[in-house]
Amino acid sequence: MCRNYLFICAVILCLFYGRAFDINKSQQAKRVCVVGAGIAGLTSSRYLKEEGIDFTVLEGTQYVGGTWRYDPRTGTDEYGLPLHTSMYKHLRTNLPKPTMQLRGFPVPKDMPSFPSWRLYYDYIKDYAKHFDLIRHIKFLHLVVAVRRESNIWKVKHKYLPTEEEFEDEFDYIIIGTGHHSKPNMPNIPGESNFKGKIIHSHNYREPDVYKNRRVLIVGAGPSGMDISLDIAAVSKTLVHSHHSKIKFNTPYPDNYIKKPDVKEFNETGAVFEDGTYEKLDDVIYCTGFQYDYPFLDKSCELTLTPRSVVPLYKYMVNIHQPSMIFMGLVVRACLVVAIDAQARYATALVKGNFTLPSKEDMLDDWQKKADAVRSKGRPLSDIHLLAQNEDQYYAALTEESGIDRVPPVMFKIRALDTEAKLENLYTYRNYVYDVIDDETFTRHIETRSNSSCLP
């Protein structure tokens, strides 16, 4: 009887450990490809690593940090590829540091409220080092093709120094290359006649080359407003053309001239929609960027345009192929906070912590959002807009996946910071935002001793 009991116990133990082994093997069998080693790629890597999920990061450059790495060059790199970064010399973050902090990795206490690109890039590199992510990254491996075949993702990538090509198979793919690297050019009539120089803000680096010149800035997004003030400090005149209905109360300098949209260029300047004319030496288009994923083929079953990627569930999951996840496509949000939350959601999905709704339900959810955009007479590109729905989005991610909720205080800080921008673009970066708890924060003016350390 004792022998029978021991035998039965042995069988039960074998079955238990065998099942445990199979479950563990199943978890380990999930291979994830992360495209890009910017903030999206690094945060995804961190959470995948913490969960013991097998992953590889493919990065086309030899650096981490993506667009946050400043490069004085413009155009193409040493391999003839377009430079990814859009950083310029005097850039400082346009959101305060609490909203720029990555979860579980506090920003340095002595970091200014709105740090320079240099300080923030150092923070990103420290993040990669702290979580030991570098060894998971294949640098100078450019993704050239992604296709779905036999329920697997086949990813072709090229090692740039030798041009040798590889193809690997993955169960999931996380696209973390962002959407701030391919310039959106407006193509205004008469451009070819203009004898001056026309560039996009992607290739803007420093204001000194515009000293005592007549410069036109086209666009009133974050870069348009920031660069216009950067150049106005040195230029002879700064002509700012845009159709934004937002009212900024900034006291602009005497050499700043506001104009409506450009109607056409001629050899020496531009004619505007109100019929006025300005002589110009240089033009900078601050007209945003395009969504650009040339490595995705038809098997991904997405509709890709320069202004949108559809259909996506929760602004990130490819509804037709839900093992493909896009990071950071949301607009008008605390982007770093949003990306970190998306990385946690994606990891929970890969791990199997929750199940997505049916394809039909996800499509229905997306269609309702698309219909709401069209009902307002807005372009489909607004499907990526969070704006006032940002905090609701974080709550929805938590409710579905079980990840820790992004504190509502983040959205509240962004809302007050937006008001400060409208008040004065020269002074909004003087404010310091201190988080008290998940719901509340304080704001005060940065002291001179702190602001003096701004690089």
What features would you describe in this structure?
The protein has 455 residues and is α/β, with parallel strands linked by helices. The protein folds into two domains: 283 residues, 3-Layer(bba) Sandwich (FAD/NAD(P)-binding domain), CATH 3.50.50; 101 residues, FAD/NAD(P)-binding domain, CATH 3.50.50. Helix content is 29%, strand content 22%. The strands form eight sheets. It has a five-stranded parallel β-sheet with strand order 3-2-1-7-22, with helices on one face. Strands 9-16-10-11-12 form a five-stranded parallel β-sheet, with helices on one face. β14 and β15 form a beta hairpin.
For the largest sheet, list the strands in their spatial order.
3-2-1-7-22
CA-based gyration radius: 25 Å
From the coordinates shown, what is the CATH architecture of the largest domain? Answer: 3-Layer(bba) Sandwich
Full CATH superfamily name of the largest domain? FAD/NAD(P)-binding domain
Rough outline: globular
**Terminal residue distance:** 81 Å
Number of domains: 2
Strand content: 15-25%
Task: List the total number of helices.
Answer: 9
What's the story with the biggest beta sheet?
5 strands, parallel
- Fraction of residues in H or I helices: 25-40%
CATH level 1 class label of the largest domain: Alpha Beta
Can you count the beta strands? 24
Structural class: alpha/beta
Average pLDDT: 93
